[in-house]
Amino acid sequence: MLVKQVMYRDPQVLTTSSTLADAAAIYLRGEVNCAPILDEKGQVVGIITVAELLKALQEGKDFTTPVVEVMDRNLVGIPEDIPFEAVSDLPLERLLVINREQKLTGILTRIRLIRQVYQALQETENQLRAILQAAPNGILATDKVGKIIHVNEAARRILDLTQEEIYGQAIGDILPNFNPEEVLFHGHTVAGRRITIRHTVALLTANPILHRGEIVGAVISLQDISDLEAAYSELETVKALNQELTNIIESSYDAIMVIDQRGKVLRVNSSYERIFGISPTKIIGHRLTEIEDYCTKVWQDVLDAVLQEGQPVSRKLRTPAGKEILLTGNPVVTDEVGIRRVVINIRDMTELTQLQAELEQNREEMARLFQEVKELRARLFSEEGVVFKDERMQRVVEQALLVAKVDSTVLITGESGVGKEVIAKIIHKNSPRAKGPFIQVNCGAIPETLLESELFGYEPGTFTGASREGKIGLLELANGGTLLLDEIGELPLNLQVKLLRVLQDQQVFRLGGRKPIQLDVRIIAATNRDLKEMVQAKTFREDLFYRLNVVPLEIPPLRERRGDIVPLAHLFLEKFNRKYGFKKKLHEEVFLTLENYSWPGNVRELENLIERLVVTTQENIITCKHLPPHICDSQGGTGALHFNVRDVIPLKDATEMVEKALISRALERYGSLRRAGSQLGVTHSTLLRKARQYGLL
């Protein structure tokens, strides 16, 4: 750095004719505290400072006094092109800077020097900070006792903490797997140590910061190697898959042969020897034309047909031992070369033929067992309060049973009263968490001011009126079990953020608490609102929606599954007869009327209606006259089956439609083939055959 880069350029000057008033005017502008004095030739003959001006006034001189009477004539001039280091140690307060023509070009004062040095230090610090922030690796610096004094953005991102949560903290608290004494007290260097920070895998390098031989701190570098770990894991997965593929091919009961497009045998599994009595080692690596075997022509025929047609080809072969063999060649196609391989599956059909005969013999027995299992399953669900005939509802229950085996988050949607809580309980009772608690929270029933403390709990003395012992939240109470968040759409936005964190980390912080509490809880959410519309309206967080919507289960309203109305009515009638000690029955016309009602309140409305009929009807037979008027008025008829003729179709098709509808209605109402057949006037075997024909069983 040269002198002219730090000097004060083009300073205001005085002449030999200038007075103390002229000097004072310069100083009042506040830019400098001294002014050079030039003669008629422009040469510097002296300099006057503020101190000299004040001294002259103190001695009795006035502002009309010429400056030449009080100026300092001891001048030190330096060239503007010399390095700053050459004059930085001079003890003078100010230096005159001249150019090659010996003309004054500036002044170098100690105040100006301090200001320039400070500015240079600021620029250097800003540049260093920008470099550290741009570094891809996380960088932290500590003082000599291990307190963090610097952290860049990459480190903050790896640690998943805010700047405020990091600055001033002990490095050992932020990085529990790192012992700072190795570096700060012993001066050791830690290189390439693998650590895990929450969900991030990183390499840690730490070095002591030395100043004049003394350790004054440490610098820690964190390199995120999660992607490298993932790549290594993926490579290991590929190796495992390759080994698994080999094991699968070897474990196949069918013989498998892989041939390239030139007819060279690449791979044959051990089942080939079982079927043909020939060791695979005798044919692997040879072309089909080089193999002397009675079946070689068939292999070649399959290969040629697959290469020509570009699709699977099957052939049959009978061995000298009388075995029936089915050959199926499948092309392996790539974008670069087309058909690259042909895989021939060789199946011994002799045993399969025998198995098929046995299968035919057992088919009737399997049908009978299937019907028994179906009835037992229906009885089991009826004990849980679930009765269904509708296919859509059956799929919902089957999906619930399937997802119950794992801990995936489930979002149950449907109108109010369709039975979302019942489905949630089915998931819980059929899951590995069945022995754990099942906690249900209605997010819309708890005041917003209390909901946070109810869900997350609080530490002692967190707020006015809080229990001195604190309180365990519902999330903790559900630990080891299942938590049902009913009416999740009513959850306030501020709590949605906290719930999202719980779903991500399986950790909860009580109100007023600083230590996370580890959770092991399965979350099931339920709502009758359209969360997608709420996401678009910014009243429900999009990230929380996708966290909850891992396995969506939509329960159809009762009006869309009318086949469930009669079984549910029977279930509720039996339930309330048993509860109140009655023996009430519903007349047939009541069932027909119930089936034609729209049920805006869904299953809950039906249950409430049956209970009201049981407790308010004096007769043992409940008829349509006991029904509320709005249900009877909505029927629009007798409730019998109605068919609207909208087009002309063959009589045979129409007959089949009516027959299918009658059989379906009879099976729904009477529950067994024998009772349904008796009501329809057909035998059990005839009804079974027709029900299978129409896909009803």
TrEMBL record:
<dbReference type="Pfam" id="PF00989">
    <property type="entry name" value="PAS"/>
</dbReference>
<dbReference type="GO" id="GO:0006355">
    <property type="term" value="P:regulation of DNA-templated transcription"/>
</dbReference>
<dbReference type="InterPro" id="IPR035965">
    <property type="entry name" value="PAS-like_dom_sf"/>
</dbReference>
<dbReference type="InterPro" id="IPR002078">
    <property type="entry name" value="Sigma_54_int"/>
</dbReference>
<dbReference type="InterPro" id="IPR027417">
    <property type="entry name" value="P-loop_NTPase"/>
</dbReference>
<dbReference type="InterPro" id="IPR025943">
    <property type="entry name" value="Sigma_54_int_dom_ATP-bd_2"/>
</dbReference>
<dbReference type="InterPro" id="IPR025662">
    <property type="entry name" value="Sigma_54_int_dom_ATP-bd_1"/>
</dbReference>
<feature type="domain" description="PAS">
    <location>
        <begin position="241"/>
        <end position="285"/>
    </location>
</feature>
<dbReference type="Pfam" id="PF13426">
    <property type="entry name" value="PAS_9"/>
</dbReference>
<feature type="coiled-coil region">
    <location>
        <begin position="349"/>
        <end position="379"/>
    </location>
</feature>
<keyword id="KW-0067">ATP-binding</keyword>
<keyword id="KW-0238">DNA-binding</keyword>
<feature type="domain" description="Sigma-54 factor interaction">
    <location>
        <begin position="386"/>
        <end position="615"/>
    </location>
</feature>
<dbReference type="InterPro" id="IPR030828">
    <property type="entry name" value="HTH_TyrR"/>
</dbReference>
<protein>
    <recommendedName>
        <fullName>HTH-type transcriptional regulatory protein TyrR</fullName>
    </recommendedName>
</protein>
<keyword id="KW-0175">Coiled coil</keyword>
<dbReference type="InterPro" id="IPR000644">
    <property type="entry name" value="CBS_dom"/>
</dbReference>
<dbReference type="InterPro" id="IPR003593">
    <property type="entry name" value="AAA+_ATPase"/>
</dbReference>
<dbReference type="Pfam" id="PF00158">
    <property type="entry name" value="Sigma54_activat"/>
</dbReference>
<keyword id="KW-0804">Transcription</keyword>
<dbReference type="GO" id="GO:0005524">
    <property type="term" value="F:ATP binding"/>
</dbReference>
<dbReference type="InterPro" id="IPR025944">
    <property type="entry name" value="Sigma_54_int_dom_CS"/>
</dbReference>
<keyword id="KW-0805">Transcription regulation</keyword>
<dbReference type="InterPro" id="IPR058031">
    <property type="entry name" value="AAA_lid_NorR"/>
</dbReference>
<keyword id="KW-0547">Nucleotide-binding</keyword>
<dbReference type="InterPro" id="IPR009057">
    <property type="entry name" value="Homeodomain-like_sf"/>
</dbReference>
<keyword id="KW-0129">CBS domain</keyword>
<dbReference type="InterPro" id="IPR000014">
    <property type="entry name" value="PAS"/>
</dbReference>
<feature type="domain" description="CBS">
    <location>
        <begin position="7"/>
        <end position="63"/>
    </location>
</feature>
<dbReference type="InterPro" id="IPR046342">
    <property type="entry name" value="CBS_dom_sf"/>
</dbReference>
<dbReference type="Pfam" id="PF18024">
    <property type="entry name" value="HTH_50"/>
</dbReference>
<dbReference type="Pfam" id="PF00571">
    <property type="entry name" value="CBS"/>
</dbReference>
<dbReference type="GO" id="GO:0003677">
    <property type="term" value="F:DNA binding"/>
</dbReference>
<keyword id="KW-0058">Aromatic hydrocarbons catabolism</keyword>
<feature type="domain" description="PAS">
    <location>
        <begin position="124"/>
        <end position="182"/>
    </location>
</feature>
<dbReference type="InterPro" id="IPR013767">
    <property type="entry name" value="PAS_fold"/>
</dbReference>
<dbReference type="Pfam" id="PF25601">
    <property type="entry name" value="AAA_lid_14"/>
</dbReference>
